[in-house]
C-alpha cells in the first residue's frame, strides 16, 4: 500500500512533468496559430465572429477552451451552431451555421426585423437580405401567445396546397380579435386566437370546396372554431 507521502510526491512529480511538457509544447512553432478560417457565414461578418471567439494569430492553438469560444459565438442570434477545429500545423477553422429568417416583424417603433421559425427576433430587415417574407403586425411585442399562433399558421402553410406561405402577405395580431391573415391577392381570414391547427384544416377544406365549384373566397371567419363564415368574390 502506497504511503500518503509517496502518493503526494508521485502526484507532484506528474503535475510538474505535465506542466513542463505543456510549456514546451506551447512554445513550439508547430502549434502557433498562423491562420484562422471562418466557414458558413453569410450575414455575420467574419470579423465579428473572430472577435466573439477571442482567437487570434500568434498564440498557441491549445491555449483556449473551445466551449468558451463557442458560447460567445452563439450569443449572436443569427448563429444556431458553431464548431471549432484545430488542424496542425497552425490552422484553426470556425464552422458556423446561420438561422434562416422565416418572417418579418413590424415593431411599435416602426422598425422591421427578421424573425426565426422559433420566434427569435433577428437583425433589422434590409433590401440586401430580402424583404419577400410574410410580416407580423399589430400588438407584436406584448402578445407572445399570438406570435406563437402566427408562427404556427406560417409553418402549416409551408406544405399547404390551398394557402401557401408565399401567398401570405401579413398576419395581424390583435389582443381582442386574435389573428387575421391577409393574402397577397387581397383575401382575409380571421382565425381568432386558439386551436389554430384545427381551424387551419377547416380553412383548407373551405378553400378546396370553393375551388371545386369555381368560386374564390375573399373573406373567411373561422374564429369561433365551430363553423366558417365565408364571403365569395363575385
Please supply descriptive tags for the structure shown above.
single chain, 234 residues, Rossmann fold, 2 domains, 9-stranded mixed β-sheet, 30% helix, 28% strand
User: Mean of residue pLDDT?
Assistant: 85
CATH architecture of the largest domain: 3-Layer(aba) Sandwich
The number of E-state strands comes to 12
Largest β-sheet summary: 9 strands, mixed
Helix segment count? 5
- Give me the secondary-structure category: alpha/beta
For this structure, what is the CATH homologous superfamily of the largest domain? Cell division protein FtsQ/DivIB
CATH fold topology of the largest domain: Rossmann fold
Strand content: 25-35%
Give the CATH level 1 class of the largest domain: Alpha Beta
Name the assembly state: single chain
Alpha-carbon Rg, integer: 28 Å
| Helical residues, percent | 25-40%
Low-pLDDT runs: none
Shape: elongated
Give the number of domains: 2
Report how far the terminal alpha carbons are from each other.
97 Å
